[in-house]
Design goal:
Largest sheet of chain B: 2 strands, antiparallel
Number of domains of chain B: 1
Number of strands of chain A: 2
Radius of gyration of chain B: 21 Å
Number of strands of chain B: 4
Oligomer: heterodimer
Strand order of the largest sheet of chain B: 1-2
Helix content of chain A: over 70%
Radius of gyration of chain A: 22 Å
Shape of chain B: globular
Order of helices and strands of chain A: HHEEHHHHHHHHHHHHHHHHH
Structural class of chain A: mainly alpha
Distance between the termini of chain A: 41 Å
Largest sheet of chain A: 2 strands, antiparallel
Number of helices of chain A: 19
Order of helices and strands of chain B: HHHEEHHHHHHHHHHHHEEHHHHHH
Shape of chain A: globular
Distance between the termini of chain B: 30 Å
Number of helices of chain B: 21
Strand order of the largest sheet of chain A: 1-2
Strand content of chain A: under 5%
């Protein structure tokens, strides 16, 4: 079992599926086969990742399933492995991708095959990001993801797709090139880019601030943090539903993951020093973007701004550098992955029927689409962090840690929770309740089977982890504990 | 006699040129035969170079005027293969303009001979002879489509400006000779250790001349016009082959005769590099003609190659060599695409002509997509690794400013590459292009795309070959 390269298989499988789709050009008309091939590939990947989770040893903080191969002689090794922090993101990726593929119904009319190829290649890159243990390999996957996402937004997006695709690409690239400088500098300072070795060696404190800022420039854009968040609403609004889901559920998590793995792990001194900066930006993000979300008239834009606010909580939690804070952040990220994916799918459902994302198009559809209203309600509540949903667990832990660390920040962040509740509930009220004014809505049909399947698949873990977050916490606990301990040792021994 | 074996490639190629000239005069309608023989000559020369000289650490011949080492063997083979591919994929293009003549392959062969001399030169005179031989052939090639007014203009412009730069170069050479008393690189190296003003002038003049040949900013003005005006197949040749030779000469000058004066030229190189990277990226944004755009993009790519040279380390030289090799592969793919864009024997070269290419020609546009992303330096494609090695060596010398400016200009450059992709993929389609491409054209596009795509699986091979180049 140890010899079987399970992580590499996880990375490669979707690409192989994509290759298969690429060469199988015979059935252009028969769209279903193409879709089933892609679905099958991603499901196999999901099963494989569940197997990974089952055989994952929760009692150790070491990296597991490590593969270490020489890639460039005397320079870079291809090294992958998972620990408690990364495995959950990996499973989130393999879980969301098949749902994305199912969700493509009528929204993608032309070039379905190319779309699926892009989604599958994207999955490969995303899995690669979460399990690479070498900085250069990480950078490779992190950047490579831009290509398929650029095409997904640009080819299949809405009317302002070109602008959004360019903005997405250039913003992210601009942030990332500085990270590349930092990675190469780390190589010249320490002689290695292997993350596990770097954890052991540590980086001289005098370099840490600059390196931290370089990494921060990349992650802050990707997270996205205020004030570099403006690409996200554009990208979300113009991307097709499946693209928005991938973007919100997984791409944004890369940065949160990067903060934990690299910023905290490699630069403890600098992380400590820059905590005020992160706190300030996070709090601004939470309050400011929540207020913006309140005023949105486009549903997708509203959810996009709420994503920025939620990610503000995540960065706040990470940089409390406490057990609860980081655990809360990871759970918040997983939960946001599920909930925002579900919300985008919910918007996609009514967009497919009415071709409008504007809130004032709708109203009073509760009696027309009861099943939809129930599920949408559930996800709305999860997004605002009602106890019993996964959103609550994360926010609660983060705020608890924040209160311990800095009272003022925690109070302001808690205010954000209230505004969050306001905009989500108001959105729900305006879309679902009220009087049915728009007569076009009368012909609306309720969820079809595949939509029910997708939304229930997302609802189950949302509720499950809301009531019983133990499996998540058990998985991440030891790794985070170890991270914080080594962090404290490095701070003290400085 | 043993010496002659080592210069057998040059001897063989010059004998072939004479033979082909005679054949062309005496046999009518011989352009096809001459084209085929020239291809064969290029291949055979590459094989001879590989067999006889590849693996020789360092060998100095003819009283120290010619040098054979890893660098020269590697660069000669790259030059020959690139020239081979250029020649083989341009025949259809030439035929459609009715300029498929015997002179074309012969001129290419003679410019290649000049480049091989430049690559192997270890003496100012030999270097200058090689340079002039290749330049004269290139002037004629630029005007090859002589009925076209733009082509004549390009040739004339190139000739006037190039002659000027050759003059500067020659003046620099004479200054160096005057102060050191020798034209031999090794002798100059031992003599050059004072920092007299005139010597610095000599170095500057030589660097200006070389920067002109490699089209680095601020000596790039000729490039866009010449690239646009020349026939596309000649532009392809311009963007690839002379750059290899010019870069090699750059390496030789900087690291053999001028090595002791590294403080003097390092600043110049850093400036050339930064100016080229930034200017090439910014100026390309406004272009409407694909060939002009390629000209600006090649200017910025030269900037990256020069960044490696500016480091003054072996790593830097190797990374530049890797960069230029990968750049040539990408350029070959790009021009293969350009040569495929024809409809009823009319070739299209405006950016708008790419519009909606992906609907009608999915494979062609996919290849172009890969090539463009690679030119923009997005991982995991080969272009990323090329930049990665360069910046690795730049950062090794703690030249942070150069690295950061260079990487930021890749973001600017990404914009215009993305614009091409946008036009191909997001815009409305136009009429279909012809699909009767020659097998070689398909091959060169397919092979270059595949190499770019799978380079990340085997990155060590190229490094291993290049890592034998030791100049310091």
């Amino acid at each position: 079992m140890i010899d079987f390269p399970i992580l590499s298989s996880l990375i490669l499988l979707p690409s192989i599926g994509a290759l298969f789709l690429f060469f199988n050009r015979s059935n252009n008309e028969n769209n279903l086969t193409v879709k089933y091939v892609a679905l099958f590939t991603s499901l196999v990947n999901f099963v494989l990742s569940i197997y990974l989770w089952i055989s994952f040893d929760q009692t150790t903080s070491d990296f597991q399933f490590v593969e270490d191969r020489i890639w460039i002689e005397n320079f870079i090794n291809y090294k992958v492995g998972v620990d408690g922090i990364s495995i959950l993101f990996l499973i989130l990726t393999t879980f969301i991708t098949p749902l994305c593929i199912i969700s493509i119904n009528n929204s993608i009319k032309n070039r379905l095959r190319e779309f699926l190829i892009a989604v599958l290649i994207m999955e490969s890159f995303m899995i690669g990001v979460f399990c690479s243990l070498d900085l250069v390999v990480f950078y490779l996957f992190f950047e490579a993801g831009l290509i398929p996402m650029f095409l997904i937004i640009g080819i299949w997006g809405g009317s302002r797709r070109v602008y959004s695709a360019f903005k997405f690409f250039l913003y992210t690239l601009l942030g990332s090139v500085l990270m590349l400088v930092a990675i190469i500098s780390i190589y010249w300072i320490t002689g290695t880019t292997d993350v596990t070795k770097l954890y052991g060696i540590g980086i001289d404190a005098k370099y840490q601030n600059l390196l931290w800022l370089a990494f921060f420039s990349s992650f802050a854009v990707k997270t996205p943090m205020w004030p570099v968040h403006t690409w996200l609403p554009d990208a979300h609004v113009e991307a097709p539903t499946a693209g928005s889901v991938l973007l919100a559920a997984i791409l944004l998590k890369m940065a949160g993951y990067g903060f934990i793995r690299f910023s905290l792990g490699l630069f403890p001194v600098a992380s400590e020093a820059f905590t005020p900066l992160i706190y300030t930006l996070s709090v601004i993000a939470i309050i400011f973007t929540s207020l913006i979300a309140l005023m949105q008239e486009d549903m997708k834009k509203l959810i996009a701004y709420s994503s920025v606010a939620h990610m503000g909580f995540v960065t706040l939690g990470i940089f409390t550098i406490q057990q609860q804070g980081i655990e809360g952040s990871i759970i918040q990220m997983i939960s946001h992955g599920l909930v925002s994916a579900a919300l985008f799918l919910c918007v996609g459902v009514i967009y497919d029927r009415m071709h409008s994302r504007l809130i004032n198009t709708y109203g009073g559809i509760v009696s027309l689409v009861p099943k939809y209203s129930v599920l949408f309600m559930l996800f709305t509540l999860a997004a605002l962090g009602l106890p019993g949903t996964s959103g609550f667990v994360g926010e609660f832990l983060i705020l608890m840690a924040a209160f311990k660390d800095n009272f003022l920040v925690a109070v302001i962040a808690s205010l954000g929770v209230i505004i969050g509740a306001a905009y989500m509930l108001w959105l729900y009220k305006r879309v679902i309740f009220g009087r049915l004014i728009n007569s076009d809505l009368k012909g609306m049909i309720d969820l079809n089977k595949s939509e029910i399947v997708i939304l229930t698949c997302l609802a189950i873990p949302t509720l499950l982890f809301g009531f019983y977050p133990e499996p998540l916490i058990n998985t991440i606990e030891v790794s985070i504990n170890n991270l914080i301990e080594t962090h404290n040792i490095k701070i003290v021994s400085r | 006699m043993e010496n002659l074996v080592l210069v057998l490639p040059e001897v063989f190629i010059s004998l072939s040129i004479m033979f082909l000239l005679i054949l062309g005069v005496f046999k009518k309608n011989s352009s096809k035969i001459i084209q085929n023989i020239s291809l064969l000559v290029l291949l055979i020369t590459a094989v001879i170079t590989f067999n006889e000289t590849f693996g020789i650490e360092e060998m100095i011949l003819f009283n120290g005027s010619v040098i054979i080492d890893y660098l020269s063997s590697f660069m000669k083979i790259v030059t020959l293969l690139a020239a081979f591919l250029v020649l083989v994929i341009s025949s259809n293009y030439l035929k459609s303009f009715k300029i498929f003549k015997i002179e074309y392959p012969i001129l290419i062969l003679s410019s290649v001979l000049g480049m091989m001399l430049m690559i192997s030169s270890n003496d100012l005179i030999v270097f200058y002879m090689g340079l002039e031989l290749q330049s004269l052939a290139l002037y004629v090639l630029a005007t090859f489509n002589r009925d076209e007014i733009k082509s004549s203009e390009a040739g004339l412009k190139y000739f006037v400006l190039s002659a000027l730069s050759s003059g500067l170069l020659l003046y620099g050479c004479s200054l160096i000779y005057g102060f050191t008393g020798s034209t031999n690189f090794n002798v100059i190296a031992t003599q050059l250790n004072s920092d007299q003003y005139a010597l610095t002038f000599g170095i500057v003049f030589i660097l200006v001349g070389l920067a002109f040949k490699i089209s680095a900013v601020p000596f790039h003005m000729w490039a866009p016009d010449v690239y646009e005006g020349s026939p596309t197949s000649v532009t392809l040749f311009f963007t690839m082959v002379p750059k290899i030779a010019a870069l090699t000469v750059f390496i030789r000058f900087l690291y053999i005769p001028f090595l002791n004066l590294i403080d003097q030229w390092q600043m110049i190189l850093v400036f050339l590099s930064i100016a080229s990277m930034v200017f090439g990226a910014v100026a390309a944004i406004g272009q409407k003609n694909l060939k002009r755009l390629v000209a600006y993009s090649s200017i910025s790519h030269v900037g990256y190659a020069l960044a490696g040279l500016a480091t003054g380390s072996n790593d830097g030289i190797q990374s530049s060599v890797i960069y230029i090799t990968i750049y040539i592969i990408m350029n070959l793919g790009l021009f293969s695409c350009l040569l495929m864009m024809k409809r009823n024997n009319v070739y299209y070269e405006q950016i708008d002509d790419l519009s909606g290419l992906s609907k009608n020609h999915p494979l062609l546009s996919l290849s172009l997509l890969v090539i463009l992303f690679s030119l923009a330096g997005i991982p995991p494609l080969a272009g990323f690794f090329a930049k990665f090695y360069v910046f690795k060596s730049v950062l090794e010398q703690s030249m942070f400013f150069l690295a950061i400016v260079g990487l930021l200009s890749t973001v600017v450059a990404a914009f215009y590459y993305l614009r091409l992709i946008k036009i191909m993929y997001f815009d409305k389609e136009k009429e279909k292009y012809d699909e009767d491409h020659s097998l070689w054209l398909r091959f060169s596009l397919g092979a270059s795309t595949l190499l770019i795509l799978i380079y990340f699986i085997f990155p060590s091979q190229l490094i291993e070959i290049v890592s034998r180049i030791n100049m310091i």
